[in-house]
Specification:
The protein is of the alpha+beta class. The chain is built from five helices and 13 strands.
Length: about 190
């Protein structure tokens, strides 16, 4: 994670107001604000594909997916954070605030060289504090590999690869790993 843009402790209200006009997205961790890094085309393709595959399975269900531009809010004791996951799913009852989701059941992050360590450590630590979160999925962009961590299994790692199906229990859906990566890994960019 890069150095924070603010070391003085910005308020949540100031952070949210700033995000409404910012040209670059920022994440918020206990008063510190961090600029988001850019993404590759492969990262974007995977995000779009996952959103489409998940949205197809959410039809007629009381759940909705959000990608990249919608924050998730984490508030636990003296810990308050806002992260921009690549994809999240929130089910009824939905968060009243239009700018973020308070209680996602599923969070998906596409890994990158610049964010992988952070996604696996501090972000994962923060996400586990969301009482509603049932599953956290990390997607590798350079090989067909999807890792899932489930609350009801003590956040133990499960790995899915080519030829396998990943069951997303939080939303009663199934993703074929091959469908997620079809045509993406062979595309240059």
């Amino acid at each position: 994670m890069p150095a924070p843009l603010s070391r003085t402790g910005i308020s949540v209200e100031d952070y949210l107001a700033g995000e409404e006009v910012a040209e670059v997205r920022h994440e918020y961790v206990n008063g510190a604000v961090y600029a988001m890094v850019g993404v590759t085309k492969t990262h974007n393709r995977l995000t779009k594909r996952l959103a489409r595959l998940i949205d197809d399975q959410l039809e007629d269900r009381p759940c909705e997916s959000f990608v990249t531009e919608v924050k998730t809010h984490i508030l636990a004791r003296n810990d308050e954070r806002f992260y921009y996951p690549d994809l999240l799913v929130e089910c009824e009852p939905y968060t009243d605030d239009e700018r973020f989701c308070d209680h996602p059941v599923l969070v998906i992050e596409i890994l990158s060289q610049s964010t992988e360590r952070y996604d696996r450590s501090d972000k994962f630590y923060g996400y586990r504090k969301i009482p509603s979160l049932l599953e956290y999925v990390m997607v590798t962009p350079d090989e067909p590999r999807m890792e899932v961590y489930r609350r009801d299994r003590g956040w133990d790692l499960e790995v899915y690869g080519a030829g396998e199906n990943l069951r997303l229990e939080a939303i009663d859906a199934e993703l074929a790993v091959d469908d997620v990566y079809a045509g993406i890994l062979s595309t240059t960019a």
